[in-house]
Specification:
Family: Belongs to the site-specific recombinase resolvase family.
Largest sheet: 5 strands, mixed
Number of domains: 2
GO biological process, one term: DNA integration
Helix content: 40-55%
Shape: elongated
Order of helices and strands: EHEHEHHEEHHHH
Pfam families: HTH_7, Resolvase
CATH topology of the largest domain: Rossmann fold
Structural class: alpha/beta
Radius of gyration: 22 Å
Distance between the termini: 66 Å
Strand order of the largest sheet: 2-1-3-4-5
Organism: Sphingobium fuliginis (strain ATCC 27551)
CATH class of the largest domain: Alpha Beta
InterPro entries: Homeodomain-like_sf, Recombinase_CS, Resolv_N, Resolvase-like_N_sf, Resolvase_HTH_dom, SSR_resolvase
Number of helices: 8
Strand content: 5-15%
Length: 186
């Protein structure tokens, strides 16, 4: 039974190119999440898992686009292949089906471990780079959400007893950000 070819794409920032990940692939349907890999709330991944049927093939750019870590990767691949769904990883040139050999399982583990290791190295280099930039005085963190005038308005409105949720909505910030500004003033 020949099923559908289903694409899954995850981009971690809104400026990353969605089209590049599955370029040149003939797909019947594509599910796209715009979320960090560590974000467990990925509605399009859940939708893709519910949509895929026996005989279908799920196509993903690379292992790190599908799972946050090796355990999640193994669980997802096993869940799909047990249901008779094949999964292809383009970057790694690997495909998995229900009849996987011990060699295929080894490749999944090794390649998944390398992807996890690579992400850890990137995070470590990023932390080191930020630390060096801070020492030089070049890194100041993320740009503040509110100007000094807006922070003053925030404090005046809180002092007047206005609801914090309303103030946050009016200023275009989350309630947590509002509370961070209030804590910083103490």
């Amino acid at each position: 039974m020949k099923g559908q070819r289903i694409g899954y794409v995850r981009v971690s920032t809104f400026d990353q190119n969605v089209d590049r990940q599955l370029e040149g692939q003939s797909l019947d349907r594509i599910f796209t999440d715009k979320a960090s890999g560590k974000d467990v709330n990925r509605p399009e991944l859940d939708a893709m898992l519910a949509f895929a049927r026996e005989g279908d093939t799920v196509v993903v750019h690379s292992m790190d686009r599908l799972a946050r870590n090796l355990d999640d990767l193994r669980k997802l691949v096993q869940s799909l292949t047990k249901r008779g769904i094949q999964i292809e990883f383009l970057k790694e040139s690997l495909a998995f089906s229900g009849e996987d050999s011990p060699m295929a399982n080894l490749m999944l583990s090794v390649m998944g471990a390398f992807a996890e290791f690579e992400r850890a190295l990137i995070r470590e280099r990023q932390r080191e780079g930020i630390s060096i930039a801070r020492q030089r005085g070049a890194y100041r963190g993320r740009k503040r959400s509110l100007s000094d005038e807006m922070v003053g308005e925030l404090h005046r409105r809180v002092a007047a007893g206005e609801r914090k949720a309303t103030i946050a909505r009016d200023l275009g910030i989350s309630r947590e950000t509002l509370y961070q500004y209030l804590r910083a003033a103490v």
